[in-house]
Amino acid sequence: AQSVTQLGSHVSVSEGALVLLRCNYSSSVPPYLFWYVQYPNQGLQLLLKYTSAATLVKGINGFEAEFKKSETSFHLTKPSAHMSDAAEYFCAVSDQGTDKLIFGTGTRLQVFP
Amino acid sequence: DTAVSQTPKYLVTQMGNDKSIKCEQNLGHDTMYWYKQDSKKFLKIMFSYNNKELIINETVPNRFSPKSPDKAHLNLHINSLELGDSAVYFCASSQTSGFLSTGELFFGEGSRLTVL
């Protein structure tokens, strides 16, 4: 069965610091991988997705993620955190071409001035 | 123009009552979903419909009954509400092409259900 594990339920960084949110996946077939962001009292929105093309994926708001098959990882990074990045971030996996997304447990990002 | 809209946003009710949450999407997508997010933010798929047909049903109690009158609407009716049903329920939609999906879901803002 597919799954994703997000290491660290809470991550705190200073404004301007590097953001690194970790995600490892488990899948018996090449997966599609996603990062979604949830701002307070809102629904989730897609940040970026990996669908077996380029391994380095750029998303919105300056975020990017790198698919590393050898490490079964898809970590999310941003070079310089902004206060507006404070939110809950979810990693998700699906079988190629299916509707069913399996979400991780989420990582809350706090950004301090 | 809200792409995926849910009503109501907040719902407070007593145990044993029946309630419904409505969802509409104006994106022209052919697949819609209900997800449940618990108090620890864990998101779990409940149902998905493709062109009004049930595709995914994730071992959800029979008290939960989705209904899709057309591909732009997916409603969720819950009978005999229990304390454990308290959660935020998210509707989402996506576009599929045959059996292929982009995997990109567009979410509504959620409906927070509190059962007392």
List the helices and strands and how they pair.
The complex is a heterodimer of chains A (113) and B (116).
Chain A: E1 3-7, E2 10-14, E3 19-26, E4 31-38, E5 44-50, E6 56-58, E7 64-68, E8 73-78, E9 87-95, E10 102-103, E11 107-112
Chain B: E1 4-7, E2 10-13, E3 19-25, E4 31-37, E5 43-50, E6 53-57, E7 64-70, E8 73-78, E9 87-94, E10 96-97, E11 100-101, E12 106-107, E13 111-115
Parallel strand pairs in B: 2-13
Antiparallel strand pairs in B: 1-3, 3-8, 4-5, 4-9, 5-6, 7-8, 9-12, 9-13, 10-11
How would you characterize the overall build of this protein?
Helix content of chain A is 0%, strand content 57%. The mean pLDDT of chain A is 91. Chain A is mainly β and 113 residues long. In chain A, strand 7 (64-68) and strand 8 form a beta hairpin. Chain A contains no helices and 11 strands. In chain A, the strands form 2 sheets. In chain A, strands 2, 4, 5, 9, 10 and 11 form a 6-stranded mixed β-sheet that branches. Chain B is an all-beta fold and 116 residues long. Chain B contains no helices and 13 strands. Chain B has strands at 4-7, 10-13, 19-25, 31-37, 43-50, 53-57, 64-70, 73-78, 87-94, 96-97, 100-101, 106-107, 111-115. In chain B, the strands form 3 sheets. In chain B, strands 2, 4, 5, 6, 9, 12 and 13 form a 7-stranded mixed β-sheet that branches. Chain B has a 4-stranded antiparallel β-sheet with strand order 1-3-8-7, with no helix packed on it. In chain B, a hairpin with a 5-residue loop joins strand 4 (31-37) and strand 5. The model of chain B has no long low-confidence stretch (mean pLDDT 90).
Name the shape of chain B in a single word: globular
Biggest interface, which chains?
Answer: A-B, 25 and 29 residues
Total number of strands of chain B: 13
Helix content of chain B: under 10%
Rg over CA atoms of chain B = 14 Å
Q: Strand portion of chain A, in percent?
A: over 45%
Distance between the termini of chain B: 34 Å
Q: What is the count of helical runs of chain A?
A: 0
Largest sheet of chain B: 7 strands, mixed
**Amino-to-carboxy terminus distance of chain A:** 41 Å
Quaternary organisation of the protein chains: heterodimer
Report the uncertain regions of chain B. none
- Average per-residue pLDDT of chain A, rounded, comes to 91
Rg calculated over all Cα atoms of chain A: 13 Å
Main sheet overview of chain A: 6 strands, mixed
Helix fraction of chain A by DSSP (H/I, runs of at least 4): under 10%
Structural class of chain B: mainly beta
Instruction: Write the H/E string of chain B, N to C.
Output: EEEEEEEEEEEEE
Question: Please, how many helices of chain B?
Answer: 0
Runs of chain A with pLDDT <50, length 5+? none
Overall, the morphology of chain A is globular
